[in-house]
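REQUEST FORM: STRUCTURE PREDICTION
Request ID: SP-0412
Submitted by: Lab K.M.
Chain count: 1
Length (residues): 82
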Amino acid sequence: MCARKLITGASFGPEALHAIGEAFDAAWAEIAGNFGDDPAEIDDALLDLETALFSVATNDSRDVEELKRAALERMSLHDRTA
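STATUS: Completed
RESULT:
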């Protein structure tokens, strides 16, 4: 499922969206160096992170660190099965 469908189909309140945004930024800061300078590879990684984050977030999500950890774990599991 693409991230756009996840975003479109999801309904998050302002507090959850704020936490999701912060978690995305924190997670990307942690892993960005793993993806080199190739714009296509970076775009794929950003989409993977976005997809992972929205797959673990709920409207009750408020814990930025927990969201970040869960999204990175989901990305890691996807990489191992791909």
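NOTES: The chain has a mean pLDDT of 85.
Reviewed by: T.R.
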